[in-house]
Amino acid sequence: MKSVIALLAASAIASSAFAANAVDKLPSGVVVEHIKQGTGPQPKADDTVSVNYRGTLANGTEFDSSSKHGGPATFPLNRVIPCWTQGVQKIKVGGKAKLTCPAATAYGDRGVGAIPPNSDLTFEVELLEIKK
């Protein structure tokens, strides 16, 4: 019996060492899965941020990335899709997260370029800095 208890205790310790990434589920349906915790400040909606990112459709097809444009992208958070405005505010500088964006928080029924109308999107976003 002692060996079973020891095995269960070891299993519990091992599983907590490999705990899942922290996840924020926002009221809008946006999900922020923290891949790497940052140590800097978190931006506000009216801040300008610099990020590396990769965007994919639900089927995994990449439709855009900062590397396609030569490096980090810089933009005001209040001038992008709602998913980004809401989700990036949950990331600390130096952190990386996966944003899962319901269509209503992305491009909705209009679609854009390679993104069909009513598409749920996923972005991996690394927050490099908050510009002042």
TrEMBL record:
Matching PROSITE patterns: FKBP_PPIASE
Domain PPIase FKBP-type: 46-131
Alphabetized Pfam families for the sequence: FKBP_C (PF00254)
Signal sequence residues: 1-19
EC number: 5.2.1.8
Name of this chain's protein: Peptidyl-prolyl cis-trans isomerase
Top enzyme category: isomerase
Molecular function via GO: peptidyl-prolyl cis-trans isomerase activity
Keywords from the named record: Isomerase, Rotamase, Signal
Described function: PPIases accelerate the folding of proteins.
Catalysed transformations (reactions): [protein]-peptidylproline (omega=180) = [protein]-peptidylproline (omega=0)
Annotated InterPro entries: PPIase_dom_sf, PPIase_FKBP_dom
